[in-house]
Inverse folding.
């Protein structure tokens, strides 16, 4: 009887840990990865030896991790309108490819749990090429659209003051020397991260999207990273141009810039090409 109570306790602990890990599982939009932790225990009626029990528990943990990974991947937002799950419902080919991508998740740590059971942590990159998730869900454009130019009469400001960011001292304004773009989207409601974001100007014109960029490069590296503060904004380099979004469009997925800031971004990009270099960070 005591053995049964111990088994029940282990089973309940594994279920609780699995539910807790699943609740926390979500894409890390700064590193563009998904990480999940699966838990498993062995069925004592099937385990012939302690080593066999550990093997069965590991197998159960791996299965649990794959299940969690599938659930997280299904909920990933590809763009403002479409999730991975919606794409799978409309295409059996996409569904098959997504299943293969999930099976390609890498085990980054594993081990036996104290008191019995096993834990397996898996990781999957949203980008990276070689048949990965991005290559499956982001369509290759038939034509690369050039990034727009600023208004013909636009002139860069001589005393531009970037948005105030606590605990961060921006580099001195230096036209033509920017290494990347940081769009501060905080204070506008929750920005919803997506794999294929768009930046618009106040008139609704797209000034940055995957159809403007080298497809193979964005499949390898992604289009942007999402950061909580400037310490996580390394993708934009050491001298980023910082602008404040004025709105969030398309279900809060796509930042909108004022016409003045949009023109400045396009003007500076024409000199430094940070948009083509996908050196873009969204603060959220």
């Amino acid at each position: 009887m005591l053995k049964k109570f111990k088994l029940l306790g282990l089973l309940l602990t594994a279920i609780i840990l699995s539910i807790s890990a699943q609740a926390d599982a979500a894409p890390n939009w700064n590193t563009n990865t998904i990480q999940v932790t699966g838990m498993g225990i062995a069925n004592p009626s099937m385990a012939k030896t302690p080593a066999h029990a550990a093997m069965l528990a590991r197998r159960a943990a791996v299965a649990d991790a794959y299940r969690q990974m599938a659930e997280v991947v299904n909920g990933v937002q590809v763009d403002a309108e479409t999730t991975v799950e919606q794409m799978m419902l409309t295409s059996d080919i996409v569904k098959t490819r997504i299943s293969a991508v999930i099976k390609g998740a890498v085990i980054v740590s594993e081990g036996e749990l104290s008191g019995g059971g096993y834990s397996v942590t898996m990781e999957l990159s949203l980008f990276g090429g070689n048949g990965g998730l991005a290559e499956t869900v982001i369509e290759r454009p038939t034509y690369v659209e050039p990034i727009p130019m600023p208004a013909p009469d636009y002139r860069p400001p001589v005393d531009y003051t970037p948005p105030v960011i606590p605990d961060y001292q921006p580099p001195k304004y230096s036209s033509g020397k920017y290494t990347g773009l940081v769009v501060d989207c905080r204070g506008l409601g929750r920005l919803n991260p997506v794999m294929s974001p768009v930046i618009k100007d106040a008139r609704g014109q797209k000034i940055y999207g995957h159809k403007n960029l080298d497809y193979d490069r964005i499949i390898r590296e992604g289009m942007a990273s999402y950061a909580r503060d400037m310490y996580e904004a390394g993708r934009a380099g050491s001298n980023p141009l910082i602008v404040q979004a004025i709105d969030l469009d398309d279900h809060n997925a796509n930042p909108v810039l004022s016409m003045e800031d949009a023109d400045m971004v396009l003007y500076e990009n024409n000199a430094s090409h940070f948009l083509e270099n996908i050196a873009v960070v969204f603060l959220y």
The longest helix spans residues 50-75. Confidence is low (pLDDT under 50) at residues 1-23. Residues 32 and 120 are 20 Å apart (CA to CA).
